[in-house]
Amino acid sequence: MIKAKSFKEIIKLIEEKDGAELTLNEGLMGMSFHWNNYKEKTELYLKIKNDRLVISRIAFNHKRRGTGTQVLELLKEWCRANNFKYIAVERADTLSIVEFIKSMSLSQSIKKSTSIRIA
C-alpha cells in the first residue's frame, strides 16, 4: 500500500513555489491522493492504477515558475523508486491539465490518458 507521506517532497515543493498550504484527502486503501487548496486554486490529484501513477488533476495558482516541470521530475523519480513503469495524465479535458500537457511537450488526447514511459 502506498502512503501519502511518500509524496512529501513533491507536496513541499508545490507549497513553497505556489505559496499554498495543501490539505490531503486520501482515497480508499492508498489508491488515490488529492491535495488541494481551493482558495489558492492549487491542487494535485494522483491515482494508482496497476503499473501507472496517474495525474488526474494538477493546477497551480502561480504559473510559469517551473513548478510543473519540477513536479514531473520528482514524480518520475518516485515511479522509479516504487517500480512504476508509467506516469499517465488522465482526462485531458480541463484547462489545467491541457496547459500541463502542452508545457511538458506531451501529445494530447481529449478524454483519453496520455502516458510517459519511465525507464
Q: Quick check: average pLDDT? A: 79
Number of domains: 1
Strand content: 25-35%
| Major sheet description | 6 strands, mixed
User: How many beta strands in the DSSP annotation?
Assistant: 6
Number of helices: 3
CATH class: Alpha Beta
The CA-CA distance between the termini, in Å, is 22 Å
Extract low-pLDDT stretches. Answer: 107-111
Predict the CATH topology.
Aminopeptidase
Question: Structural class of the helices, strands and pairings?
Answer: alpha+beta
Name the helicity range: 25-40%
Polypeptide structure, described:
The chain is an alpha+beta fold and 119 residues long. It has a single domain, classed as Aminopeptidase (3-Layer(aba) Sandwich). 29% of the residues lie in helices and 29% in strands. The chain is built from three helices and six strands. The chain has a six-stranded mixed beta sheet with strand order 1-2-3-4-5-6. The chain is globular. The two termini are 22 Å apart. The relative contact order is 0.16. Mean pLDDT is 79; it is low at 107-111.
